[in-house]
Design goal:
The protein is mainly alpha-helical.
């Protein structure tokens, strides 16, 4: 055992910490940025939607040293490696975009209703 104190990782930039996400090179964006596919890398998926990491964590992927995932692995490789049905994982990821679309539609409808109420003649 060493008498040295453990390194203070809070003082180290996130990108320099062990196991930290590596930047994805420019020009690696997916062809259709609103559909997750099995060929996408984990890094690309995480850049496609801000809540994609939550989906992976929901499947217990990437949360600890025993279930870490690499950003250069494809969604299919991770699915096969951890025994998660690919359709289940892709459906969960793609539901993020469906939720965003429904939320935007609801906000637009609420704005239209508020505008209509503001311009309606008062009784």
């Amino acid at each position: 055992m060493s008498d040295r104190p453990a390194p203070d990782t809070a003082a180290v930039p996130m990108s320099a910490q062990p196991g930290a996400p590596r930047p994805i090179p420019a020009g690696t964006a997916p062809a259709n940025p609103t559909t997750f596919t099995k060929e996408l890398t984990i890094g690309q998926a995480m850049r496609m939607h801000p809540r994609a990491p939550e989906v992976f964590m929901g499947f217990h992927l990437g949360g600890c040293s025993h279930c870490s995932i690499a950003e250069d692995e494809t969604i299919e490789q991770v699915s096969m490696g951890y025994g998660i049905p690919i359709d289940m994982l892709l459906n969960a990821l793609n539901s993020l975009f469906e939720y965003d679309k429904k939320r935007a539609e609801a906000a637009k409808a609420a704005q239209a209703a508020a505008a209509a109420a503001a311009t309606a003649p008062k009784a």
